[in-house]
């Protein structure tokens, strides 16, 4: 039996941050001191992260976030795990907490009506309802709600352009959903701006729906942005909807192509995974920079020179790390 002594946390919060670079350093330092790993984005408009750590360290981290009045309303989706889901900590400043090309929209001012998982479950099958998946192709190809409308987009920043194809749905109830809820905040706000009147969003996203409503009618697996790659959601009526990219058999085993120049996110069955050495094609298999495949299909992202310990030193207390004066922690 596995000892699930770790948590994986998924969260976001739209809140004005006056000095995001300064806060990034403070936040980063807390993570290093408490062995929190993962990827966190700090922006003028808020914060967005997925992190892992021992349960007691994650409890400290959640308390740290909630203690700041700006982020007191942050809701954490908490999943138990048997180890860290990340190998490093990255806390970066970016202009948006999710790249949307919709910086003018503030979800704290106007966004779609939030539905908790049970409310979403009751509403999703009504006649005048459209369930809209606002995620990228590789995500909804692996798993999506039964009868959901999907968009042909490679990145969320392409969403605004695709909304032009949805004009005929303006008289419907539109229920948006994504992995954890963050994309829906901007997506539903944009739909309202474009004249859609009855717009909703699944609060907490697919992850919360699986935890609180059993995941009913979510078909396939949910792509996640940590080393698990994909997770089960549906405990009621699960179904595999994706096929192996190589041989075409049913498979919900997600792999990032071993060729870093490709890095396609595709379903590849275990047999083909080993046969192709984690590559999605013969061309990628023969690529000179192909990464070593370990059976998972997960590879640590390129850090682009980011060093989480730069500008930090250990004090006399071996467990305490402090920032060197005058040195940046972000390279």
Automatic annotation (TrEMBL):
Catalyzes oxygen-dependent 5-hydroxyuridine (ho5U) modification at position 34 in tRNAs. The lineage of its organism: Bacteria, Pseudomonadati, Bacteroidota, Cytophagia, Cytophagales. Keywords: Oxidoreductase, tRNA processing. Residues 302-331 are annotated as: Disordered. Pfam families: Rhodanese, Rhodanese_C, UPF0176_N. It comes from the Bacteria. Residues 317-331 have a biased composition (Polar residues). GO terms for biological process: tRNA modification. Belongs to the TrhO family. GO terms for molecular function: oxidoreductase activity, acting on paired donors, with incorporation or reduction of molecular oxygen. This is tRNA uridine(34) hydroxylase. InterPro entries: Rhodanese-like_dom, Rhodanese-like_dom_sf, Rhodanese_C, TrhO, TRHO_N. Its EC number is 1.14.-.-. It catalyses: uridine(34) in tRNA + AH2 + O2 = 5-hydroxyuridine(34) in tRNA + A + H2O. NCBIfam families: PRK00142.1-3 (NF001135). SUPFAM superfamilies: Rhodanese/Cell cycle control phosphatase. Residues 125-218 form the Rhodanese domain.
């Amino acid at each position: 039996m596995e000892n699930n002594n770790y948590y994986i946390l998924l969260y976001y919060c739209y809140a004005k941050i006056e000095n995001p670079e300064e806060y990034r350093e403070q936040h980063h330092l807390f993570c290093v001191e408490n062995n929190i790993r993962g990827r966190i984005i700090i922006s003028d408009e808020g914060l967005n992260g997925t992190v892992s750590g021992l349960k007691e360290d994650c409890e400290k981290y959640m308390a740290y976030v909630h203690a700041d009045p700006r982020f007191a309303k942050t809701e954490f989706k908490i999943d138990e795990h048997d180890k860290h889901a990340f190998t490093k900590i990255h806390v970066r400043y970016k202009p948006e907490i999710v790249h949307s090309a919709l910086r003018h929209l503030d979800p704290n001012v106007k966004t779609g009506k939030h539905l908790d998982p049970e409310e979403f479950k009751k509403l999703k099958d009504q006649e005048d309802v459209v369930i809209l998946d606002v995620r990228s192709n590789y995500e909804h190809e692996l798993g999506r709600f039964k009868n959901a409308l999907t968009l042909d987009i490679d990145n969320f920043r392409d969403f605004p352009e695709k909304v032009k194809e949805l004009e005929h749905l303006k008289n419907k109830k539109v229920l948006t959903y994504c992995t954890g809820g963050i994309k829906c905040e901007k997506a539903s706000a944009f739909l309202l701006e474009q004249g859609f009147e009855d717009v909703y969003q699944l609060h907490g996203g697919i992850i919360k729906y699986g935890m609180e409503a059993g995941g009913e009618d979510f078909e396939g697996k949910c792509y996640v942005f940590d080393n698990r790659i994909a997770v089960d959601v549906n405990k009621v009526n699960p179904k595999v909807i994706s096929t192996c990219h190589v041989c075409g058999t049913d498979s919900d085993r997600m792999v990032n192509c071993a060729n870093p120049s490709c890095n396609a996110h595709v379903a590849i069955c275990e047999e083909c995974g080993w046969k192709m050495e984690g590559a999605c094609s013969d061309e990628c298999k023969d690529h000179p920079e192909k990464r070593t495949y370990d059976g998972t299909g997960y590879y640590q992202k390129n850090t682009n020179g980011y060093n989480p310990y730069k500008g930090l030193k250990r004090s006399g207390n071996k467990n305490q790390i402090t920032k060197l004066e005058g040195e940046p922690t972000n390279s």
